[in-house]
């Protein structure tokens, strides 16, 4: 790679992903390229290009802002019969790099007839179709005869289907069976083919719910029957999602299992409301707490006196019905009564709303506003920073 600017940065990323041994020749490189030198991901020759730099190479990229240097690199490559791509002149290149996208182990490469933007657009459309299931990869969906199935524990994020990870969306699109919570992005289920079995594994707060033991048994049963099974949850599987219990059940049964992390509502939902859980010079810690049982309850594992003494941010999940008791405990153990609180209800959905109050006013505010689960509430000075973001345009 001759050149160390932004073009070189993009090209090097693709080469490293292909496990190439990369040498960059340039007096200067971008900070991102420099960060790859110390761990040995690439070699940096810190000078201008000189004849002979391509000795031993099989592929070269001329990516400087000097056409004369790029022409010299291409000339040396031609003499050595080395493939060379000129970033400034495709017609003078001996090789064109396609727009490459990946979906699992499937690689899509697109040439745009000399138009790189056209190639990128087609590549993105194909990869998006493979990801959301609108383009079917039959080989990925149909297990080989006699092969055991598998389970993927997918964190679906706080509710908006656009906030699920790419890998999570791929797993859902390839599933034969989906066990879904009510907090998972429901619109993803509507796009599944009719032959995919969808099982309601919801756990309603203090209401109807599927027993965890039954969920574990269904995951194992369908996987052992040769199915690709997805356990689709809201948030992240390992943040109050009982994902570890499901992982342990699969491992004990000899079922291959993968964990796909999700955007946890503990951070994602406040962020969508413009509330950072940390802020430079204001707080150096934040704590995520389950509020499904109140302080003093025999089943509570939370050290409420310690939380009351903290100066940082406290994020409470599953704490609508217990909010008054939790707020009182925090005040009792050291938090100022007028500490600001923001409650974000229905985070990431079209009905998202924010209620602002204080610790002493929290219970009354929830009652007056008729807030019901799901809701996340945040305690701390970061609440004063809140500026609700608008949609990108």
TrEMBL record:
<dbReference type="InterPro" id="IPR014776">
    <property type="entry name" value="4pyrrole_Mease_sub2"/>
</dbReference>
<keyword id="KW-0808">Transferase</keyword>
<dbReference type="InterPro" id="IPR014777">
    <property type="entry name" value="4pyrrole_Mease_sub1"/>
</dbReference>
<dbReference type="InterPro" id="IPR000878">
    <property type="entry name" value="4pyrrol_Mease"/>
</dbReference>
<feature type="active site" description="Proton acceptor">
    <location>
        <position position="181"/>
    </location>
</feature>
<keyword id="KW-0511">Multifunctional enzyme</keyword>
<dbReference type="GO" id="GO:0004851">
    <property type="term" value="F:uroporphyrin-III C-methyltransferase activity"/>
</dbReference>
<keyword id="KW-0560">Oxidoreductase</keyword>
<dbReference type="GO" id="GO:0019354">
    <property type="term" value="P:siroheme biosynthetic process"/>
</dbReference>
<dbReference type="InterPro" id="IPR050161">
    <property type="entry name" value="Siro_Cobalamin_biosynth"/>
</dbReference>
<feature type="domain" description="Tetrapyrrole methylase">
    <location>
        <begin position="151"/>
        <end position="362"/>
    </location>
</feature>
<dbReference type="InterPro" id="IPR006366">
    <property type="entry name" value="CobA/CysG_C"/>
</dbReference>
<dbReference type="InterPro" id="IPR012409">
    <property type="entry name" value="Sirohaem_synth"/>
</dbReference>
<keyword id="KW-0949">S-adenosyl-L-methionine</keyword>
<keyword id="KW-0489">Methyltransferase</keyword>
<dbReference type="Pfam" id="PF13241">
    <property type="entry name" value="NAD_binding_7"/>
</dbReference>
<dbReference type="InterPro" id="IPR035996">
    <property type="entry name" value="4pyrrol_Methylase_sf"/>
</dbReference>
<dbReference type="GO" id="GO:0051266">
    <property type="term" value="F:sirohydrochlorin ferrochelatase activity"/>
</dbReference>
<keyword id="KW-0169">Cobalamin biosynthesis</keyword>
<dbReference type="GO" id="GO:0043115">
    <property type="term" value="F:precorrin-2 dehydrogenase activity"/>
</dbReference>
<dbReference type="Pfam" id="PF00590">
    <property type="entry name" value="TP_methylase"/>
</dbReference>
<dbReference type="GO" id="GO:0032259">
    <property type="term" value="P:methylation"/>
</dbReference>
<feature type="active site" description="Proton donor">
    <location>
        <position position="203"/>
    </location>
</feature>
<keyword id="KW-0456">Lyase</keyword>
<keyword id="KW-0627">Porphyrin biosynthesis</keyword>
<comment type="pathway">
    <text>Porphyrin-containing compound metabolism; siroheme biosynthesis; sirohydrochlorin from precorrin-2: step 1/1.</text>
</comment>
<dbReference type="InterPro" id="IPR036291">
    <property type="entry name" value="NAD(P)-bd_dom_sf"/>
</dbReference>
<keyword id="KW-0520">NAD</keyword>
<protein>
    <submittedName>
        <fullName>Uroporphyrinogen-III C-methyltransferase</fullName>
    </submittedName>
</protein>
<dbReference type="GO" id="GO:0051287">
    <property type="term" value="F:NAD binding"/>
</dbReference>
<dbReference type="GO" id="GO:0009236">
    <property type="term" value="P:cobalamin biosynthetic process"/>
</dbReference>
<dbReference type="InterPro" id="IPR006367">
    <property type="entry name" value="Sirohaem_synthase_N"/>
</dbReference>
């Amino acid at each position: 790679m001759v050149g160390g600017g932004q073009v070189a940065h993009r090209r090097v990323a693709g080469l490293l992903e292909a496990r190439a041994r990369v040498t960059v020749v340039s007096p200067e490189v971008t900070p991102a390229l420099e960060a790859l030198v110390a761990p040995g991901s690439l070699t940096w020759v810190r000078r201008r290009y000189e004849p002979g730099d391509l000795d031993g190479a099989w592929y070269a990229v001329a990516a400087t802002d000097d056409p004369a240097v790029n022409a010299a690199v291409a000339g040396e490559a031609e003499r050595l019969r080395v493939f060379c791509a000129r970033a400034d002149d495709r017609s003078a290149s001996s090789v064109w790099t396609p727009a490459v996208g990946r979906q699992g182990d499937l690689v899509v490469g697109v040439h745009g007839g000399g138009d790189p933007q056209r190639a990128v657009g087609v590549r993105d459309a194909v990869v998006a179709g493979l990801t959301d299931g609108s383009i079917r990869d039959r080989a990925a969906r149909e297990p080989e005869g006699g092969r055991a199935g598998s389970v993927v524990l997918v964190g679906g994020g706080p509710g908006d289907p656009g906030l699920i990870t790419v890998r999570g969306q791929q797993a859902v699109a390839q599933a034969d069976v989906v066990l879904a919570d009510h907090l998972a992005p429901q619109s993803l289920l509507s796009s599944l083919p009719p032959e995919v079995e969808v099982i309601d594994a919801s756990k309603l707060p203090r209401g109807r719910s599927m027993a965890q033991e039954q969920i574990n048994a269904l995951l194992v049963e369908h996987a052992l029957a040769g199915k690709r099974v997805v356990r689709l949850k809201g948030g992240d599987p390992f943040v109050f999602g009982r994902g570890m219990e499901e992982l342990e059940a699969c491992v004990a049964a000899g079922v291959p299992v993968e964990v796909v992390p999700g955007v946890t509502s503990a951070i994602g939902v406040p962020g969508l409301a413009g509330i950072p859980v940390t802020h430079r010079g204001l707080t150096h810690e934040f704590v995520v707490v389950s509020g499904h049982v109140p302080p003093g309850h025999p089943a509570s594992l939370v050290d409420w006196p310690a939380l009351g003494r903290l100066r940082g941010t406290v994020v409470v999940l599953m704490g609508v019905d217990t909010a008054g008791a939790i707020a009182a405990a925090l005040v009792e153990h050291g938090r100022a009564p007028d500490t600001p609180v923001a409650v974000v209800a229905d985070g990431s959905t079209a009905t998202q709303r924010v209620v602002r109050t204080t610790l002493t006013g929290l219970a009354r505010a929830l009652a007056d506003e008729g807030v019901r689960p799901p809701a996340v509430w945040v305690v701390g000075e970061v609440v004063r920073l809140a500026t609700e973001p608008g949609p990108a345009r």
